[in-house]
Queue: 4 jobs
Job 1
Amino acid sequence: MFNGYYNESIIACLIFTLIIFLTMYSNPLNMIHDYPPAIQNRAKELGLITDEQKGYSKTDIIRKIIAIIVFGLILAFIVYKFNGADTFEKGFLYSYLLWNVVNWWDAIFIDCIWFCHSKKVIIPGTEGMKEYKDYWFQIKGSLKGMLFGIPTCLIVGTLVLLF
């Protein structure tokens, strides 16, 4: 069942990293909702964002739901076609393992190493804020990410069962 797991994990991490880098480098404010609250509040004080931009808007939530469904469909196809997942349990387990590889890659590499140490993600006017090096904030985000993976992987398991 886990044939290709390492390759798929590497490819998924690379794709995820590319998406985040392109989004952040074009404008760090594009991902302000993922910044620590103190940085969000400072950006609001500076007039760089509104209250709506600090949290997830209805559009953000709808976009994330659509992404979860699309990701679920793609992942279900991959685990069914290439890994031989033919039961709900196999589909759920495999996809949840892959989800968490990317989730913890995000926490360790993208958040704790890159975000916490890159000048490219610093929003003008927030330089020097200690929250840019808040590793615990990043780890808590990945713990939440583990929970967010469950609905997506339930979709994957269900789709594998239907295939």
Note: Helices lie at 5-26, 37-45, 51-54, 58-81, 88-115, 135-162.
Job 2
Amino acid sequence: MKLLDRKGKLFGIINIIDLCVILIVVIIAAGTFYKFKVMDKTSNTAAMQPVTYTVKVEKIRSYVLDNVLEGDILYDKTSGNDIGKITKVESEPATEFISMSDGTVVKGNVENRINVIFTVEADAVQNSSGCFVNRTYELLVGSQRKFMTKYFECDGYINSIEE
């Protein structure tokens, strides 16, 4: 008995192209089963915990503060993902170092500008790699990001993180 006959059938039973199609379907079905039934899911490995962090936005005009309200949802500008709920909004006069004519440097207020500090609550995964809101957005103290709410957009940085 020949391996392939004149009609292209393997051992005279099945066409070689049909065999390849059947093998591809079996491999895809096995991969799908492994992906969804055998592999560990991310949600099973780490529990979400509430985290409170503060975001500081420096040197903005005071009327912008009126556009930020407690209860607003804070979003990451880059991804558009929800990264928490604003629970407290505080402001303070914006300051910067100013060189005086006698060569000294003093800290003075910036005219018509304020610093705003948002306190934000979110659910996050905390592990040895760090703190991740929505399992993907990494919170790092001092990291500068673009933030936005429904009525406000700014550049700020994460000032502190508390569990």
Note: The beta strands are 9-10, 14-15, 48-60, 73-76, 82-99, 105-127, 130-133, 137-139, 144-148, 153-162.
Job 3
Amino acid sequence: MTKQLLLIRHAQASESAQGQKDFDRTLTNKGIIDASQLGMHLLKKSLHPDAIFSSSAVRAKITATTIAEKINFDVNKIKFDKQLYESSPRSLLALVNGFKDHWKRVFIIGHNPVITYFAEYLTGNLIDSMSPASMAVIMFDLPSWKEASAGLGDIDVYYNPQYN
């Protein structure tokens, strides 16, 4: 049974203003445009998720809600999690292993370098560094998300708004 995990790096964020916490950084105008373009790309490719998980950092939340609006996914159903802000490949794997098995496609919106490390861990491929608003579509031929682990995924598509 095929499952798709879309790992998405948040769109381009503004620099921290004096006294502003990193967690509170917002998107630049370019970031908003790129997140919107990614959402339109997902809509065009009919990549509608069963669930969306996102870091609760402001820049990730804006990316997630922008994408959700473009693909007609109820923004109230996005699962925002502060732990995704400072996650690790191990914590992301625990999240994925806990997905409901009837879900066929799930989005995770997070931060570098962990989102890149996690894509590399799952696929065994060297990605280097995911650009802002980029996406790795990882395919698993597994009956259960509980079985997802190192090297069992295959990159089906890598989308980078700079080149698409």
Note: The beta strands are 2-9, 51-55, 79-81, 105-110, 135-141, 154-159.
Job 4
Amino acid sequence: MNPFGLGMYCLADAAKLVRAEPRTIRRWLYGYAYTARRGQERECRQVPPLWSPQYDREELGEAVIGFQDLLELRVVREFVTHGVPLQVVRRCLQTAREVFGSDHPLANHRFVTDGATIFADSLEAEARAGEHDGELLDLRSRQYAFRSIIKDSLYAGIEYENGRARRWYPQPRSRVVVVDPACQFGHPMIESCGVPTAALYSAFLAEGRQKAAVARLFDVSPREVEVAVRFEEQFLQAA
């Protein structure tokens, strides 16, 4: 598969960018098996992935994902953080795929405005299925505030083209660092020059933490070095 324009992220880097555990996103994207007791016997059960990643793990020989997967994971993480059962997230994804005709509907611009109905329908369908008890079935006492989950800040910094996410500014207020799947395989970079933030940070450490020296070396401004350093340090803290 040609990775141009898709972006390419190992699970460790993806986990840092979306602030989730690598093990968690591996389970979301590739499924997992577990053992359950049935009477006196134990049986192995398989939980399928939430969706098929943009890259085939068997073809590449390792688990890597694309830019659309990355943005989709951000939304799923937000759902789960707010206590939404994964089965409801699964139903929501399935319905959204059908409505939008997209493999990655949560990264679709329309989901920001149309997703509330999809989410409500998914929640009610899960309750009707009776697969969860008490708190989920009692919809009147357990209302999920969709707007508190899919809030503007979650989509801030994402630019769309024909309704599809095209690039992401993870620090939307400064818009210096960009994640663009068409450049540097989608890894964070300084937009004005295309230099990866990781390269600037490595040089910063090698040059004795002298921002001016790094700025001269890469022909960028000291402010861009400062932004890159701050971004990478936050990135490492998320590890």
Note: The two ends are 29 Å apart (CA to CA).
